[in-house]
């Protein structure tokens, strides 16, 4: 049996996915990114091989994507994350016309055709506001674990606005709200609404083509997903493991290359 490996080297996390020649997802891993990406990826590959009881030589093609794709020595091909997220979203939800990918350091809105190929996109990579890093920083400021943010959002009693666009100023605003005895629940909902508003601004620049699929690790936060759904007045498609979408798309594109 032959297998394909997709590797998404993001600024905050590194993801690996193995599929077979039938495009079946077999296993995937997500780890914090490292200064030695080759060492990290090789360690992840060995873990996946052990899980699946397969040999390294059975992996016939490796595609790298993401922020650090050029640094991976073992990859056979390097493809942009925009292309890979389009392919992954299209596989999970074939009706996808727009992909919202909120990553660790940037946000992207991608327009794709019926085959999952991007034809337009816009991204925010100048500031961390509205990204995974922004949410992590606010989580630490509020002393609320990332995995609990959505639950806090659900318990909010009112909608408040976090007006600062800059992450540093937003943090100062959050600290001021806490000093004023505003509840953490209301603040977290305000932060999620702020992410949604910034996402809406990007969507308006490129246009929205239904269906809309959200990818990237931030899509695990149901509070952010709900806020974006309210902002766009639509229901979002979210893959079961949204953070693996780019790596899965990379593996799919590797399979297509191998088949040609």
Description:
The chain is globular. The mean pLDDT is 94. The protein has two domains: 1-93 and 240-260, Nucleotidyltransferase, domain 5; 97-238, Nucleotidyltransferase, domain 5, CATH 3.30.420.40. With 260 residues, it is α/β, with parallel strands linked by helices. Helix content is 41%, strand content 21%. The strands form two sheets. Strands 3-2-1-4-5 form a five-stranded mixed beta sheet. A four-stranded mixed beta sheet has the order 8-7-6-9, with helices on both faces. The protein has helices spanning 37-52, 81-92, 132-142, 149-154, 167-179, 184-206, 222-232, 245-259; strands spanning 3-9, 13-20, 25-32, 59-65, 77-78, 98-102, 107-112, 118-124, 212-215. A hairpin with a 3-residue loop joins strand 1 (3-9) and strand 2 (13-20).
Write the layout of secondary structure elements.
Layout: E1 3-9, E2 13-20, E3 25-32, H1 37-52, E4 59-65, E5 77-78, H2 81-92, E6 98-102, E7 107-112, E8 118-124, H3 132-142, H4 149-154, H5 167-179, H6 184-206, E9 212-215, H7 222-232, H8 245-259
Parallel strand pairs: 1-4, 4-5, 6-9
Antiparallel strand pairs: 1-2, 2-3, 6-7, 7-8
Helix pairs in contact: 2-8, 3-5, 6-7
Q: What class do helices, strands and sheet pairing give?
A: alpha/beta
Q: What is the CATH topology descriptor of the largest domain?
A: Nucleotidyltransferase, domain 5
**If strands are numbered along the chain, what order do they take across the biggest sheet?**
3-2-1-4-5
The N- to C-terminal Cα distance equals 18 Å
């Amino acid at each position: 049996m032959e297998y394909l490996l997709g590797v998404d080297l993001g600024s905050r996390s590194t993801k690996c996915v193995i599929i077979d020649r039938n495009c079946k997802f077999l296993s995937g891993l997500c780890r914090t990114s490292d200064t030695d990406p080759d060492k990290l990826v090789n360690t992840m590959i060995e873990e996946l091989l052990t899980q699946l009881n397969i040999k390294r030589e059975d992996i016939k093609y490796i595609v790298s994507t993401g922020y650090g794709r050029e640094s991976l020595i073992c990859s056979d091909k390097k493809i942009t994350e925009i292309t890979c997220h389009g392919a992954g979203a299209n596989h999970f939800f074939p009706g996808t016309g727009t992909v919202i990918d909120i990553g660790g350091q940037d946000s992207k809105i991608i327009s794709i055709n019926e085959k999952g190929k991007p034809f337009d996109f816009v991204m925010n990579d100048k500031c961390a506001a509205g990204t995974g890093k922004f949410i992590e920083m606010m989580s630490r400021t509020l002393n609320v674990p990332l995995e609990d943010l959505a639950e806090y959002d659900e318990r909010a009693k009112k909608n408040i606005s976090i007006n600062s666009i800059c992450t540093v100023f937003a943090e100062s605003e959050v600290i001021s709200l806490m000093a004023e005895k505003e509840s953490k629940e209301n603040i977290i909902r305000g932060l999620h609404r702020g992410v949604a508003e910034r996402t809406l601004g990007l969507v308006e620049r490129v246009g929205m083509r239904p269906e809309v699929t959200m990818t990237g690790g931030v899509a695990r936060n149901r509070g952010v997903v709900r806020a974006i759904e309210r902002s766009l007045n639509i229901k979002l498609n979210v893959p079961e493991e949204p953070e693996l979408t780019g790596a899965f798309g990379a593996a799919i594109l590797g399979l297509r290359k191998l088949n040609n």
